[in-house]
Amino acid sequence: MTIKQISIFIENKSGTLLKVLNVLKEANIQIIASTISDTVEYGIYRIICDKPTEASNLLKQNGISSITNDVFAIELDDTPGQAATAIQNFSEAGINISYMYSFLVGCKGILIMRTNDTDKTQEIIKLKKMKTYDLA
Amino acid sequence: MDDKSPYLHPEFETLSREDIQKLQLQRLQATVKHCMNSPFYKKRFEECGLKPEDIKTLDDLRKIPFTTKQDLRDTYPFGIASVPLRQCVRLHSSSGTTGNPTVILHTQKDLDEWANQVARNLWMVGLRPDDVFQNSSGYGMFTGGLGFQYGAEKLGMLTVPAAAGNSLRQIKFIKDFGTTAIHAVPSYVTRLYEVMQEQGVDPRRDTKLKVLAIGAEPHSEEQRKRIENMMGVKAYNSFGMSEMCGPGVGFECKEQNGLHFWEDYYIVEIVDPETLEPVPEGEIGELVLTTLNREAMPLLRYRTRDLTRVLGHSCPCGRNHVRLDRMRGRSDDMMVLRGVNIFPIQIEKILMQFPELANNYLITLTTDEDNDNMTVEVELEDMFTDDYARLQRLNKDVTRALKDEILLTPHVKLVAKGTLPVSEGKAVRVVDKRKVYQ
Ligand SMILES: [Zn+2]
């Protein structure tokens, strides 16, 4: 139901992002999805990759501070309005979404999200029979 | 004193070098003798086998050990006093953020002499009893408040204790009362000017201002000139420190070529902060002051930690009291921002209270226009949240906690662990990029 996401604190200085990417590249780790959000002075770079545990250890060895979280990965059919339906389910249950981003695998849309209430989110996913995506 | 006299105390101000030194020796011997009433100095003299009679010449001053701020802390609150408490009428205390606070005691005579020094300074730059003096300086424990208040009153001016802040009201006072002189920290003068502009007030056209006294925070010559151009009047540099009394210790004359330090009140030494030996005349070193006219708490060879140099002794104004350069920095890590004294340890203490933050931090001081700004970069602890809102809340909480401690709002920047410079195993804590020291 959930997958591992690595978040990296990135200062808005050139080179920090590149350093992260190079570390992962050298270890042959594939980034499946990533998003970067920022304020004026720092950003959070969030990645979904094929070997999260290895990636996290490597980053640490290279002095890059990161955190690994479980995030929900919801699979959406390739028809219009799927995302809206999914979000509506959560919103009706009073769940707030902290952040969300999406990517495509084949012709499936994957919605990555973190909410303010993990247990309740799981409940809704089960209740509404939503499909979830797994890396394996 | 006749308004036309350039000197308020000609009998002291125009002394020759020789007579200054004669007076100094006499007063030093009396001071040292009086210090034997102080438990602290009595013990200190005994420890190094020194007797008051051993001070036979001014050079003998160098036999006396230095007094440091730590000594003041160690003897907190009344351990250095040379008179019984019942003879004291005033106490000023500095904040105790880096250990015990320090306390400075005054007898009535001390307060009168303090006021005399300030009055002498204000007279020197052309102020007379007809003038209206607005003291836009913090009051309370900050000696710039009461120090200038009593000094301006002693001179005979109508004195307005406006205190700092509330610029609209300050401007109203300036206009309504016909204020001719203001004392404030330089950054506040700039602030006043900005508000004047917003209000369509032209200081040249709409006020009677003729003199500014600025001090209590380091500022460059360039900054002074800008202030003078803004306000259309002369701005004179003032030096004071609460350990000596407060403002009054040194002040620029109309030549604006260094601050005259009053040698009938103090013996000035400039020493190498490492070797503690005197530096060659004209070289930068740490200012060391010995009080010559204090009752409650005379201080012998007090290390001020301020760095400066001797510019000369004679002056076209007719005063032979030593002229010192504006302060060039500190020999310890104290920072002076907008008139507030701040030690890195205060910042560190606050940062350590946040488990989300790591130990490494960097303080950068900059000047934008005429305002001093502080940026505090601090590393995040490894395990941090990936939640933006929490990061921003942390940023805000740290900013607020620092503000409560240092009374200024720093710009807090969270940075990733391992990104701040560490040199030779010892972290660089403060980078001062302000123009004043360049
Ligand atoms: Zn002069």
Walkthrough of the structure:
The complex is a heterodimer of chains A (136) and B (438). Chain A has 136 residues and is an alpha+beta fold. Chain A has helices at residues 16-26, 52-61, 82-92, 118-127; strands at residues 2-11, 31-38, 42-49, 66-76, 97-105, 108-115. Chain A folds into two domains: 2-70, VC0802-like (2-Layer Sandwich), CATH 3.30.2130.10; 71-132, 2-Layer Sandwich (VC0802-like). Chain A contains four helices and six strands. Chain A has a six-stranded antiparallel beta sheet, with helices on both faces. By secondary structure, chain B is α/β, with parallel strands linked by helices. Chain B folds into two domains: 10-332, Rossmann fold (3-Layer(aba) Sandwich), CATH 3.40.50.12780; 337-432, 2-Layer Sandwich (GMP Synthetase, Chain A, domain 3). In chain B, helix 5 (108-124) crosses helix 6 (143-155) and helix 11 (344-351) packs antiparallel against helix 12. The A-B interface holds A 5, 7, 9-11, 16, 37, 39, 41-42, 44, 46, 60, 63-65, 67, 69, 98-99, 114 and B 380, 382-389, 391-392, 413-419. Zinc ion is lined by residues 253, 255, 260, 315, 317, 319 of chain B.
- Overall structural class of chain A, as computed from helix and strand content, comes to alpha+beta
Beta-strand level of the residues of chain A, as a percent range?
Answer: 35-45%
- Major beta sheet summary of chain B: 9 strands, mixed
User: How are the strands of the biggest sheet of chain B laid out side by side?
Assistant: 4-3-5-6-7-8-9-14-13
Q: What's the SSE blueprint?
A:
The complex is a heterodimer of chains A (136) and B (438).
Chain A: E1 2-11, H1 16-26, E2 31-38, E3 42-49, H2 52-61, E4 66-76, H3 82-92, E5 97-105, E6 108-115, H4 118-127
Antiparallel strand pairs in A: 1-3, 1-4, 2-3, 4-6, 5-6
Chain B: H1 10-13, H2 17-35, H3 39-47, H4 69-74, E1 88-94, E2 102-107, H5 108-124, E3 132-135, H6 143-155, E4 158-160, H7 167-177, E5 181-184, H8 186-198, H9 203-206, E6 211-215, H10 221-231, E7 234-240, E8 247-252, E9 259-261, E10 266-271, E11 285-291, E12 302-308, E13 310-312, E14 323-324, E15 335-337, E16 340-342, H11 344-351, E17 357-368, E18 371-380, H12 388-406, E19 411-415, E20 422-423, E21 426-427, E22 430-432
Parallel strand pairs in B: 3-4, 3-5, 5-6, 6-7, 17-22, 18-19
Antiparallel strand pairs in B: 1-2, 7-8, 8-9, 9-14, 10-11, 11-12, 13-14, 15-16, 17-18, 20-21
Helix pairs in contact in B: 5-6, 7-8, 8-10, 11-12
Bound molecules: zinc ion.
